Amino acid sequence: MAFRFVHYEVNADATKPKHLTGDITMKFFVDTADIDQIKELLAYGMVDGVTTNPSIIAKSGLDILEVTKEICSIVDGPVSAEVVALDHETMLAEGLKLAKIADNIAVKVPLTWAGLQTCKVLSDQGIMVNVTLCFSANQALLAAKAGATFISPFIGRLDDINLDGLELIDDIRTIYDNYGFETQILAASIRNANHMSECAKIGADVCTAPPNVIKAMANHVLTDNGLAGFMADIKKAGIKIL
Ligand code: G3P
Question: Which pLDDT score, from 0 to 100, does residue 207 have?
Answer without folding.
Answer: 98
